[in-house]
Specification:
Oligomer: single chain
Strand content: 5-15%
Distance between the termini: 13 Å
Largest sheet: 5 strands, mixed
Number of helices: 22
């Protein structure tokens, strides 16, 4: 009888174990299911801004990350300026370099209070980069950290205004403990906004910024500035010496006239000549000298023509005719370039990046020349012309020979490489270019490209029937890219000049030296180009820009402004080609006043203006830890229960 009792007792233990397993399993599974309902990341950041009234404002901004890929939703305002969208696109590309798989599988909602108007402009660019990089590196946000700063194409964090007001607003949240500020702003305000209860960090570039992220796992500079673009090096500078001599001849011609007629050249012209004479006569500085000569020609011709326009009309007409003959000669370069396209029909084939970028330089300068030419009705009436535009078009016409030589050389190289089975190139797909324009909320690309294409064709008197449809499409795509380059170039130039000017206004050359040396301002610029083996003409443009930016004595002169613009131009071209070479880097930016977030994303009811009727999504990040707990617990209970039943059964047999 006792034996039967023991067996029954063993069965009772077994049944109890099964019940225990069921209870524990159902509890853990329910926890798992509730966790799956919370299947998105919700966080909060504070964007510092200056309100319309001039005071500081900390804009409470919710960040929601859900399953998706490559989409960014800006919610809360129907208007975002082009600068804001550019800064967001640039921030996205740098964060993408850190962890491209994260952005391939997630969508990001940036939700501002409805009707927000103060959070606009480029000053949130650094915070966008910090936020997106934090998500990419660790899948989390750090609400105790905020900051301000405009993000340039090359990753330099640029000066912004209203820093004291922004810091005060962030401090008043009671949440923020750490704030990053552009180095140029630190210099400009001379630390007047420092607070004991806040940690203020100066940042000069994206590398400084990312190193502030707590989740940072020693991200290398190479990864941050990674390009997926191949530009092969070409060190042929053999023709530049002769070209420099011909340009110097143009300057000597007008300088001789000035001295003959006792016309004083402006201080800018004399200063530019001094810069030209002091620039090293080594191959890497040839473009520096050539670019300075262009500025000299523009300045000197303007000085002379302006002085003689009213009191020596015969001399004015003589110089005018000389200039017009050079402008008309430029037509032959553009005409020959268009004819070259007849010999190569692209048909969607990939194009060598070196050819695209040299084509961009040549056509960009052609477009600028033709635009000014048409705006002034061909400069047909010498008695009623814009002298500034006339001398600028003259300089452009002189430069076209240089850029035509480069474009023609790359055209020949491309033709040779076209037969190679290992050729690397870019597809100039209209949909990709359109995607960039769409993300910037800009829609004028097609009409502008058509107009400029027809203007160039009319300027050269080329019969459009001579050019293949494929070649015309390629040319139109180039013009669309040129419009994008211009947008980025203007953005970058304004930001860079703002930083350098802010530093200079503080303590002059001493502050510029601090910015460039102490705070490593140009480190970001150099790192941006470090992964590319650049063609000689781009490398020489880069040398010119950095050489002049680091030459404090030329600040405020035409050569300084030119150096900033040249740098912005080459960075813009490389940035766009990099996007087209790795198209997932192009974010799809959507703008709406309100939006709907998945109902499975708990906590959204607390966010004003956000609904919850979208399709459900899966977990952000890795598998829920509750599922692992369920599996381990059930396995453990079954093993323990089975062992117990076996032991009891054997003991009673």
């Amino acid at each position: 009888m006792s034996r039967l009792t023991d067996i029954t007792y063993a069965r009772k233990i077994f049944i109890l174990l099964i019940l225990l397993i069921s209870i524990v399993s159902s509890t853990i599974i329910s926890l798992s299911e509730s966790a799956e309902q919370d299947n998105c990341l919700i966080g909060k950041i504070y964007i510092p801004a200056v309100s319309d009234r001039g005071g500081g404002e900390a804009v409470e901004t919710h960040i929601i990350v859900i399953n998706g890929g490559g989409n960014i939703y800006l919610i809360g305002s129907s208007y975002y300026g082009l600068d804001t969208l550019l800064s967001l696109m640039i921030a996205y590309t740098y964060a993408y370099n850190l962890n491209n798989s994260f952005f391939a599988s997630h969508d990001i909602y940036i939700i501002l209070p409805i009707g927000t108007s103060s959070a606009r402009g480029p000053s949130a660019g650094a915070l966008f980069a910090y936020t997106l990089s934090s998500l990419a590196l660790g899948g989390e946000l750090f609400p105790e950290t905020s900051g301000t700063g405009a993000l340039n194409i090359d990753g330099v964090v640029e000066n912004v205004g209203g820093v004291p007001e922004k810091i005060s607003a962030l401090r008043s949240t009671g949440v923020i403990r750490e704030i990053f500020i552009p180095s140029s702003s630190i210099i400009y305000y001379n630390g007047s906004f420092l607070r004991k209860d806040l940690r203020i960090y100066p940042v000069s570039n994206i590398y400084d910024l990312i190193n502030l992220i707590p989740a940072n796992i020693s991200v290398s500079e190479e990864k941050i500035y990674r390009h997926n673009l191949t530009l092969s090096s070409d060190k042929d500078l053999s023709d530049l010496d002769n070209y420099e001599k011909s340009l110097y001849g143009e300057y000597s011609f007008i300088k001789k006239i000035a001295y003959t007629y006792n016309i004083s050249l402006s201080r800018d012209a004399l200063y530019l000549e001094e810069i030209f004479n002091s620039t090293p006569r080594t191959p890497e500085y040839l473009y520096s000298r050539i670019n300075t000569l262009f500025l000299l020609i523009v300045t000197a011709y303007r000085d002379v023509l302006t002085r003689i326009y009213y009191y020596n009309k015969d001399l004015f007409i003589e110089i005018y005719r000389y200039i017009m003959s050079s402008i008309r000669e430029s037509r032959s370069y553009i005409y020959n370039y268009l004819l070259n396209l007849l010999n190569n029909s692209y048909r969607g084939d990939p194009v060598d990046p070196n050819k695209i970028i040299s084509d961009l330089f040549f056509i960009k300068r052609s477009v600028e020349l033709v635009d000014l030419y048409n705006r002034n009705m061909g400069f047909e009436d010498p008695n009623n012309i814009n002298i500034n535009d006339l001398v600028y078009v003259f300089a452009r016409s002189l430069s076209l020979k240089y850029w035509y030589d480069i474009a023609e050389k790359n055209y020949l190289l491309f033709s040779i490489n076209s037969s190679s089975s290992v050729r690397r190139g870019l597809y100039l797909e209209e949909s990709l270019i359109k995607k960039i324009y769409s993300s910037l909320n800009t829609t004028f690309a097609e009409s502008e490209a058509n107009r400029k294409l027809l203007d160039i064709v009319a300027y050269t008197n080329l019969s459009i029937t001579q050019v293949s449809s494929d070649s015309l499409k390629y040319l139109k795509d180039l013009i669309k890219l040129i419009n994008l380059v211009d947008i980025l170039e203007n953005y970058s130039t304004d930001l860079r000049y703002s930083s350098l000017q802010a530093a200079y206004l503080s303590r002059g050359d001493e502050s510029l030296r601090d910015l460039l040396d102490l705070y490593n301002y140009t480190r970001g610029i150099q790192s941006y180009f470090a992964s590319l083996e650049l063609p000689s003409y781009i490398e020489s443009m880069l040398v010119f820009s950095l050489y002049m930016i680091n030459n404090y004595s030329v600040f405020g002169t035409p050569v300084y402004s030119s150096a900033i613009r040249v740098l912005a131009e080459i960075e813009s071209m490389i940035f766009i080609l990099d996007l087209l070479s790795e198209t997932n880097k192009i974010p799809s930016i959507h703008i709406a006043k309100e939006t709907e977030i998945p109902s499975s994303c708990s906590g959204i009811a607390k966010i004003p203006g956000v609904g919850s009727t979208m399709n459900p999504v899966i977990n952000v990040g890795s598998r829920s830890p509750y599922k692992d707990l369920v599996i381990y617990t059930i396995t453990l209970l079954i093993v323990v229960g089975s062992i117990a039943v076996v032991i009891i059964s054997r003991r009673n047999l």
